[in-house]
TrEMBL record:
Protein family membership: Belongs to the tryptophan 2,3-dioxygenase family.
Protein name, UniProt field: Tryptophan 2,3-dioxygenase
Pathway: Amino-acid degradation; L-tryptophan degradation via kynurenine pathway; L-kynurenine from L-tryptophan: step 1/2
Details of cofactor binding: Binds 1 heme group per subunit.
Function: Heme-dependent dioxygenase that catalyzes the oxidative cleavage of the L-tryptophan (L-Trp) pyrrole ring and converts L-tryptophan to N-formyl-L-kynurenine. Catalyzes the oxidative cleavage of the indole moiety.
EC number(s) reported in the record: 1.13.11.11
GO molecular function: heme binding; L-tryptophan 2,3-dioxygenase activity; metal ion binding
Recorded name of the encoding gene: kynA
Assembly, per entry: Homotetramer.
InterPro entries on file: Trp/Indoleamine_2_3_dOase-like, Trp_2_3_dOase
Keywords: Dioxygenase, Heme, Iron, Metal-binding, Oxidoreductase, Tryptophan catabolism
Annotated source species: Pyrinomonas methylaliphatogenes
Residues at which substrate binds: F41, I42, I43, T44, H45, R107, T244
Names of required cofactors: heme
Reaction catalysed by this enzyme: L-tryptophan + O2 = N-formyl-L-kynurenine
Length: 280
């Protein structure tokens, strides 16, 4: 076995397997001397990025399972995504243990970096249905980020995979086509909504597909809850100051609060009526 910092020829250990030595060396504070709370800020955001990696891993698996018509494992993968998102929501409370003044003591050191530039956060948005090519400009010369995001722009989303699965199961759930005239796109959208109304109205008959749909809307819901809490956390820390990357800060974040990954799942609830489905 090659020489490394863990000892020549040493057997596999916990530290070696998890690369703990490298891991705990990755938190480099920019404040001089290092501000006490900057370590918390770095660890929290690095932890977010690790969980984002796992979320993408599970979403990609769910899409692959849906392509194979394997509804149960697709649902299980999304169930894990939702549980991670609950944890990410709770992590915001840890950041809130900083006082606004203590955050300001090292905040200026972060410029011009910004959470706006989280590559994996944008990947989650893209693969979940919120594709925005304009966001690539935020990454400048970051070749890795631009390459990965362009790949996501050209890849299927969770919603596309889900409706393709429903279509193969006999539902009238046509795919979206941006090249069609607006009225035709709207017609297809309404047919997908009606397909979901049928699914929700007969949830016992279509139990596997129903549970998959529920996990999709939970993913959407908990991501929205994280956005909402994040806005309040940022406002609590810095008010309406501009972001470190130059964005409008809280004012920009508020514009994202009504974004939905799969709007058809939400609209279908409006059209549900008693008497057309199975008894509870």
């Amino acid at each position: 076995m090659a020489q490394d910092d863990y000892g020549r020829g040493a057997p596999l250990s916990y530290n070696r397997y998890l690369r703990v030595r490298e891991l705990i060396a990755l938190q480099e504070c920019l404040s001089t001397p290092p501000h006490h709370d900057e370590l918390l800020f770095i660890i929290t955001h690095q932890t977010y990025e690790l969980w984002f990696k796992q979320i993408l891993h599970e979403i990609d698996a769910s899409i692959a399972y849906m392509d194979e018509m394997r509804v149960v494992p697709a649902t299980r993968a999304l169930e894990r995504v939702v549980e991670i998102e609950k944890l990410l929501l709770a992590q915001l409370h840890i950041l809130e243990t900083m006082t606004p003044f203590n955050f300001l003591e090292f905040r200026d050191r972060l410029k011009p970096a910004s959470g706006f530039q989280s590559m994996q956060f944008r990947e989650i948005e893209f693969v979940s249905g919120l594709k925005d090519e304009g966001l690539l400009a935020s990454f400048g010369d970051d070749e890795l980020a631009v390459t990965r995001l362009r790949a996501r722009l050209g890849a299927p989303t969770l919603g596309e995979a889900f409706f393709a699965l429903l279509k193969r199961r006999g539902f009238d759930a046509p795919e979206d086509d941006p090249t069609l005239p607006p009225e035709e796109r709207r017609g297809r959208y309404e047919r997908r909504v009606r397909a979901l109304v049928e699914l929700l109205s007969h949830h016992e008959r279509f139990a596997p597909e129903f549970h998959l749909a529920e996990k999709l809307i939970e993913h959407d819901e908990y991501f929205q809850l994280w956005r909402a809490h994040h806005v309040r956390m940022v406002e609590r820390m810095v008010g309406t100051k501009r972001g470190t990357g130059g964005s409008e800060g809280v004012r920009y974040l508020r514009t994202t609060l009504d974004q939905k990954f799969i709007p058809e799942l939400w609209e279908a609830r409006t059209h549900l009526e008693l008497g057309h489905g199975e008894p509870d």
